[in-house]
């Protein structure tokens, strides 16, 4: 007879408490949760303190409610559910332009690379410097920075210096701001992040969403690339996010 899975009781009990709080339309007291889940009150308090500390619950005057981390999980789950719809768009862009395709989003005050669709013969860029530190040197980073309000853009640039990655990298904030203003909806990286590699990016916009779709390819091919395919892909991704909101 096969042995059953090894389960961690404390994790189960914490999840049962989250379920109980989420099922209630009103804040729930610790005593009510202990009775409803069938736990000793001291154990309940111990688990509640941990869930509060990690942000999965909030304590109000009249009881417990779900915390911000639960909302973050829902958002991430929504994004994971959306990726199967977005990836075919990125794959079609890769095949049409013959370059690796990327989706990046601005989330929690940071620029995050969400998905990459490449191929053995069309490899993605070797991201030897982190996305956050190199927003000024990447097409999708500049694209997202251009979509932020001035305060959010200043906040980002104040936290990440304009590192000199190649001889072509913009390291002057005033020059960067000028390039962002002149972007016109299509932003490029001409060997600014990595010598021999170029990128193009266009914005992804939907309610509550700021992002970019980008492609990378050998720098020698950049002059021959028309942005029409990229703009079409970004519109399709924007529509997918709009339907989710």
UniProtKB/TrEMBL annotation:
One of its GO terms (biological process) is negative regulation of DNA-templated transcription. Pfam families: HTH_IclR, IclR_C. Gene3D superfamilies: 3.30.450.40, Winged helix-like DNA-binding domain superfamily/Winged helix DNA-binding domain. GO terms for molecular function: DNA binding; DNA-binding transcription factor activity. Residues 64-245 form the IclR-ED domain. Keywords: DNA-binding, Transcription, Transcription regulation. SMART domains: HTH_ICLR. InterPro entries: GAF-like_dom_sf, HTH_MetabolicPath_Reg, Tscrpt_reg_IclR_C, Tscrpt_reg_IclR_N, WH-like_DNA-bd_sf, WH_DNA-bd_sf. Residues 8-68 form the HTH iclR-type domain. This is IclR family transcriptional regulator. The lineage of its organism: Bacteria, Bacillati, Actinomycetota, Actinomycetes, Pseudonocardiales.
